[in-house]
Automatic annotation (TrEMBL):
<protein>
    <submittedName>
        <fullName>HutD</fullName>
    </submittedName>
</protein>
<dbReference type="InterPro" id="IPR011051">
    <property type="entry name" value="RmlC_Cupin_sf"/>
</dbReference>
<dbReference type="InterPro" id="IPR010282">
    <property type="entry name" value="Uncharacterised_HutD/Ves"/>
</dbReference>
<dbReference type="Pfam" id="PF05962">
    <property type="entry name" value="HutD"/>
</dbReference>
<dbReference type="InterPro" id="IPR014710">
    <property type="entry name" value="RmlC-like_jellyroll"/>
</dbReference>
């Protein structure tokens, strides 16, 4: 039993967070990081389902599952492969179609009034240090202070000297920047 203050982990794994229903009640998500004006979540999609509208928000979606996902945005279908990104507006009419399987996707949503999304997907090795609001592990494993970050985990911005502990690791580096500062 600890009698001191509890140290907050620098890693948030999907298993650390309770699932929440989508706003439309048709899917589930786990919010892994949130600040005023933006959030990063890991959503589970199965079959064909509409996305909930988020007026005034920009959205970024990255499939973690090997099969990827087909998104129909305002009537136009785009196939989004594993570890690739697609952006769209929260006002867009969006349907996801996974075929017969279940797909996990990383979802970044940012209010346009709060800032502009910036993101990059990178293959990494060795030790990394990123200037980011959050780092999402897409493939492989990373390590921070002896803790393992598996695919789908978010590494908090306070983390320094992140070690890549498996080959073929990739990450999504995410930032939300104030529009007034560029």
């Amino acid at each position: 039993m600890s009698h001191g203050t509890r140290v907050r982990s620098l890693i948030v794994r999907p298993t650390d967070v309770a699932p929440q229903a989508w706003a439309n009640g048709l899917g589930v998500t786990r919010v892994l990081a949130a600040r005023p004006g933006w959030r990063i979540s890991l959503a589970e999609i199965e079959g064909r389902m509409p996305f909930s509208p988020f007026l005034g928000a920009d959205r970024l979606l990255i499939p973690l599952s090997p099969s990827g996902v087909a998104l129909e945005i305002n009537g136009r279908v785009t196939r989004v492969p594993q570890h690739s990104a697609i952006t769209f507006r929260g006002e867009d009419h969006v349907f996801a179609d996974t075929g017969s399987g279940r797909v996990s996707v990383v979802n970044l949503m940012a209010r346009r009034s709060s800032g502009r999304m910036q993101w990059a997907i990178r293959r990494v090795s060795g030790t990394i240090a990123e200037n980011a609001d959050a780092i999402v592990v897409l493939a492989g494993q990373l390590e921070v202070r002896g803790e393992i970050a598996p695919p789908g985990a978010v590494i908090r911005p306070e983390a320094r000297a992140i070690a890549v502990s498996s080959p073929d690791a990739s990450i999504a580096v995410m930032r939300v920047r104030d529009r007034r500062r560029g």
